[in-house]
Amino acid sequence: MKHSLSITEEFILMIINDETGYFYQVTGWDLNCAVVGSVLADLSLQSRIDTDADSLFVVDTRETGNQILDMFLKEIINDKQQRNTQYWIERLSIHAESIIDQHLNHLVNTKLIRHHEGDFYTINQAMAYSDSDNNDGNPGGFIKQRINEAIFTDIIPSPEDILIISLLNVCDVLRFIFELDEDHEKRIQQICQMELISRSIAEAVKQSIVSPLSKKLPVSKKIPPVYLVGLMCNRFFWQGNIPALMADVAKKHGPIFHLKTPNGKTLLCMAGPNVNRWVHRNARKVMTSGVYFRQLEKEFGASGLITSLDGSDHFRLRKVMGSVYSEKKFFSRLDYIIQLTRGFMAEQKWKKGTELSVQKDMRLLINMQMTNVTVSTDSQDLFDELVKWKEGASNTFVGHLLPRWWMKTPAMKRRYKLLLQFIQRIEQNHTPFQRSGQQRELADDLISMHHSDPQFMPEQNFPFLLGAAPILQSIYLGDVLGFSIYEMTRNPDIVRRIREEANALFERGDPTAEDFTPESIDVCKRFILECLRLYPVVPLQVRTISNQCTLEGYSLPVGQQVHIIQSAAHYSEECFPDPYKFDIDRYLPERAEHRNHGYSPYGLGTHMCVGFNWMQWQLMVTIFLILRHYDFETLPKSHRLQLNPLPTLSVSRKLKLKIADQVCELPA
User: Fold this and answer.
1) Residue 217: inside a domain
2) What is the mean pLDDT of the chain?
3) In this structure, what CATH number is given to the domain that contains residue 204?
4) Is residue 202 pLDDT above 70, yes or no?
5) pLDDT at position 305
6) 203 lies in the same domain as 301
7) Mean pLDDT across the stretch 155-163?
8) pLDDT value at residue 80
9) Where are the beta strands (DSSP E) in 470-568?
10) Residue 630 — φ and ψ, nearest 5°?
11) In this structure, which of 275, 507, 609, 646 has its CB flanked by the most CB atoms within 10 Å?
12) Domain of 446, in residue numbers
């Protein structure tokens, strides 16, 4: 049998759980020890190290050509004292997370696993089960088959398989992968004793898990209080810039703090680049979103919305929704989106001298696109009232800024009836006769899912998914567009360069998907990335601690609600030098400042926005169309931007723009 994968790669492939999209739940320290053990196993198989009962020692100092193996080998060589295997597993555990990341990236690049948005991974079955001895040389799918044969038959496993079984056994995940009875458990123990090196490494991993050599006493630092009243002297408080304000707080008080509000509430907050890294990696194991969003679900009469699901159910729904909001789906509707955008500008009589209310008009423009493209139903006449209903519901059930009786007031009841009216319009537009011959869209896919699996997609979820979701998307994306339009008035050179890209795309007629090459959209894409950094419309997320955990010495108790201000890192000099400067060159390949967890305009980890690819393309096409035809200026020209921080970050309702010039006529 040919083994083109390392022990570490095969170990990682074995612990990926396709149902949840990530590893079987091996705790952080246990996983780190096992991963380091797998690297030591690879060094052993390459005859660089050996072990006995009391020590681990180098038998060949030559480099292997593998960066990770050679780093480990060098550390062992440079230490002149004789150490045992457990020592080295614990000493080298600090490298475990980067090792996991590197191997995951390599497995993605070799197409043995697929990476899904939200940092989910699944085995690529088409590649995994190819013959390991064929021209492709992809043995990935035979790992589980080999381990299965080793456990359930009497064959003598290879040294590699003995090592992998030993590592999986000490992590206690074999029982989740296979159905084991008492005889199978005995067989596993026999296999683990077959090789001295596997016994040595597995025992050292086990000892590190059970009783670390350098076991630290649990430490819990006192979480500092921060009084909201005391922040009123901060300039960002009065600007409404929550991300920048929280970045200042985190810089002064640390990554975790209690925010004390004047009404006596205490909010546990987390902010900063290290928080983002920790949440991105650990949130799936120690946090849940269901508790926080349960009341909002109840208001809609819904159950199992994507915002409130965790684990395998969340991953399953993400995969479905990901296809609905895919890049491919967007470009299948490109012509229609262009048509809707031009129609809106013509209908609103955009021309030189026209004054625009940025928040209202940009939201209306996006709503025209979104509701027609995703549910084939116009809602422009209802939009203002639906926005008020959404903001009331968010401030009541998400932000907890309004009492619950607020939703029972006559005005809010009337607005909810309008939401139901919108849903009735959608249903009337989605009879088999109405949809015959039409291109499939969000509503079609959701209705089909309901018919095929009514438990997974119950009809009671339609008021949110069909009615409220397009309105929410129109608000969020409309506000990003509003911030983008404002920055256009401040950066004429960037506007000129984006207009050149727009003219090149549209000069021979409307572009197709093939025309949107990386080179053709470079400036516009970097402009959007910077707008999203400075103005993240969803600046924080709220979770509930479901399992005991610590972060930088702070203990986070089970049941505690925590506000994760992931966008605070956008104003961290550690991630973005000169963070208050609008600089699209941050995203050039040589700088790539967004290639880290500090950049998080779409959220973090498993609950990262599922439609962000669609959103970026929709925003880009809309900006191209706007700048191909118009120039803007603020009213007055000296206007200083004021942000509206609640319930999400948006431009102030007071921001007005004037079309300073119409540089190109709209097509007839």
Assistant:
1) no
2) 91
3) 1.10.3630.10
4) yes
5) 86
6) no
7) 92
8) 86
9) 541-545, 549-551, 554-556, 561-565
10) -140, 155
11) 275
12) 258-510+537-570+609-662
